[in-house]
Amino acid sequence: MALKKKLGCLHAHYSNIEYIEIALSSYDIELVHFVDPALMYRVTSDETFNAADAQMKVKEQIEWIAECHVDAILITCTNYIAILQEEQLSISIPIIKIDEPYFEYICHIQQPQTILFTNPATVNGTMERLQQYANYRQKSLDIEVTVINNTFELIMQGQKQEYNKEISKYLHKLIKEDKAISVAQLSMVDASKEVELKTSKSIINPLDTLISYIVRELKIEKKSAVM
Prior knowledge:
Helix content is 47%, strand content 16%. It is of the alpha/beta class. It has 2 domains: 5-97 and 210-218, Rossmann fold; 100-206, Rossmann fold (3-Layer(aba) Sandwich). The strands form 2 sheets. It has a 4-stranded parallel sheet, sandwiched between helices. A 4-stranded parallel sheet has the order 6-5-7-8. The protein is globular. It starts with a strand and ends in a 9-residue tail after the last helix.
């Protein structure tokens, strides 16, 4: 019998753990979670904490996780991904970035599309990486970026129900437009799936594209049914 694969997951917020756990619950894989909200807090609020400091901290985190005998590392924070300098790492295991399978999907959409965020701090890093990804693959994008203002604070305060309600309200207005719609953050997935179910309008999210990628790349299988 093949050994169960172990995936180390680096998050910037505890709320991301639940999404990954539930999405992979039916697969034969062990998840080990590492959470550090302090890095993004310092990046956004401490003027003395520069880019080199942030890069060194992410390098230390990734190499620490690699020493825990994982088969791959998943980074669920797009800001962490933007900071990461892979050439500085001294590890050989794969690093899975939550946004790359999402980018791949988006790059194959030929119609105009809208990407939604709730956290303004993630917009620049995500969109810069998306443009780089598209340029490398010689894809042209017709994208409008929208931030649902004054919403992200709700999830950071643990008010998930109110947070989902605000996102759902915005999505219901947006789906009337003839555009492809996606949500860029894990925290937005639940609300988007709820609206998708009620309206039958497809809403792209980074979780579904990520899980498909993990299953394929790590060659993991569904858990056997218990008889």
